[in-house]
Amino acid sequence: QRQEKIRNFSIIAHIDHGKSTLADRILEHTSALTQREMQDQMLDAMDLERERGITIKLNAVQLTYTAKDGEEYIFHLIDTPGHVDFTYEVSRSLAACEGALLIVDAAQGVEAQTLANVYLALDNDLEIIPVVNKIDLPSAEPDRVLQEVEDVIGLPKETAIPASAKNNIGIEDILEAVVDQVPPPPGDPQAPLQAMIFDSLYDPYRGVIVYFRVVEGGIRPGDKIRMMATEKDFEVQELGVFTPNPEARDELTVGDVGFLTASIKNVGDSRVGDTITHANRPAPEMLPGYKRMNPMVFCGLYPVDTNNYTGLREALEKLELNDSSLQYEPETSQALGFGFRCGFLGLLHMEIIQERIEREFNIELITTAPSVIYSVHLSEGETIYIDNPASMPEQQKISSVEEPFVRAEIMVPNDFVGPVMELCQKKRGVYSDMQYLDDKRVTIVYEIPLAEIVYDFFDTLKSSTKGYASFDYEMIGYRESSLVKMDILLNGDRIDALSVIVHRDSAYYRGKAIVEKLKELIPRQQFEVPVQASIGQKIIARSTIKAMRKNVLSKCYGGDVSRKRKLLEKQKEGKQRMKSVGNVEVPQEAFMSVLSMD
Ligand code: GDP
Ligand code: MG
């Protein structure tokens, strides 16, 4: 029976441990692709991904493998994004599998994302097959790493497969392990259709392409389908699988992973995590785990060159088609001019969007520091929501301010409980729970203001746990906090793009840190520039950027012309990311200085 021959699995790994390379090897061993068709790192679609080494969009390919038992198996290899900002997507794509290959670099050993991914895989009840990769490296220590797999992850070291994705060692063993250890998909082909969407992608010619896995029932071209969360109906046009080239199919049934198109105009109509069913024979309920992703982090995006405002709007419109979690609306800043306030799922999401705008649309950006949404109760009784610190009303008009809190779950090996608790306390966290998973690992739960996480929580967590911590958070609602707006003044002028909302207790200390940082970042000008931090009318910190001593060019007088030209060019380069604010030249980094905590 066909269903018995299906194996659905993902590859999970810490960045650079060799996930893409192994995926390529598996493709070579199983698909009919010729060498020429087989370009390196098939599964990573976008350039940006390739450079950053992270996978943003999920992919699924169908492969056929003839095992040593002589039988032909159908493999669905489902790619997962690698970063904590995409935890939700990782989780969805793992839910489309029964097993996972866990890659650990034989020289590096178990690292942060290795553990984070293991925890996600365990949450989804996956069979985990550990692979110790890069055994060809002279610096490889396979024995130490095998022991680590047993001690830190808790998987018996005998089950781990030594491999080199680069030198083609151990690939057959891995494929056989998938056949033997990953269970075939459960599910009833006669039941009402339930298919889980784990990715969707906008294509200008075909509309949205939906990637899904059939969990119950079956689906055919021409079927009237319903997206259960959005309650929108469509008619299936194309149906197929990626091998990795798209191939049409007459039917996809239990355990199959494929794609469909149905004249869907908007990615928002087929959200990741939603369940597809039939309009005329709907499933009684959705598959578990659907939750809508709302942006949690906001910042202003402004073109360095004001002529690029329209271009920036077009770039955001285009990106939004493929990314239903991206939000934006026009915003004006006295300091920066016309731009957009944009909402993102997290900091990485924010960075990726910025980078894509600069690279794919060639627009240089100034970005303001990220902020969360505050709920502000005015003395007059009204409640307003503020996603830009600059628009916080005056203190006298406010009766109270609430900020979003998250429930942060941090998993670490036992040794790091101390540093993690210390960090959480420092970030205004409220202790909630601690549970030992076994004698090696512990889950620590804190309730923490989202704003504290937006700053440098993740980086600090990583460095204070040698990278071993895994971290996930979910919104739990708004709570009152003692928050105030702090303004930054350059040369006596309030710079709206630098305003920040801080906790009253840390205002003085944050103000001092920011002014010092700005003094460092803003280059000397022709005149002295005072930098001040204020709350209301009260100056709480100040520093001074001294005036430039003399024109650098004067050094070149009489000297050779080419040297002078070089110097000018260099200055121009340095200026690219400068924005004139009033009469002060401010570099991009300065707008992020409010993030400086030390
Ligand atoms: P990913 O970030 O997990 O997808 O990792 P990649 O597959 O992109 O690999 C990261 C780097 O490790 C690349 O430079 C690969 O060529 C290299 N690499 C992957 N597998 C092996 C291996 O088995 N041996 C060696 N020596 N290098 C490898
Ligand atoms: Mg990769």
Q: Which segments are poorly predicted (pLDDT under 50) over 5 or more consecutive residues?
A: 41-58, 554-559
Shape: globular
Radius of gyration based on Cα positions: 27 Å
Report helical residue fraction. 10-25%
Terminal CA distance: 63 Å
- How many strands, what sense, and barrel or not for the largest sheet? 8 strands, antiparallel
Oligomeric state of shown chains: single chain
Question: Helical segment tally?
Answer: 12
Classification by helices and strands = alpha+beta
The share of residues in extended strands comes to 25-35%
Strand order of the largest sheet: 11-10-16-7-8-15-12-13
Please count the beta strands (DSSP E, at least 2 residues each): 33
Q: Compute the average pLDDT.
A: 84
**Ligand kinds:** guanosine-5'-diphosphate, magnesium ion
Catalytic activity: GTP + H2O = GDP + phosphate + H(+)
Protein name: Elongation factor 4
EC number: 3.6.5.n1
GO molecular function, one term: translation elongation factor activity
Give an account of the 3D structure:
The chain has 598 residues and is of the alpha+beta class. The protein has twelve helices and 33 strands. The chain has an eight-stranded antiparallel β-sheet with strand order 11-10-16-7-8-15-12-13. Strands 2-3-1-4-5-6 form a six-stranded mixed β-sheet, sandwiched between helices. Strands 21, 22, 23, 24, 25 and 26 form a six-stranded antiparallel β-sheet that branches. Strand 2 and strand 3 form a beta hairpin. The structure holds guanosine-5'-diphosphate and magnesium ion. Magnesium ion binds next to helix 1. Its EC number is 3.6.5.n1.
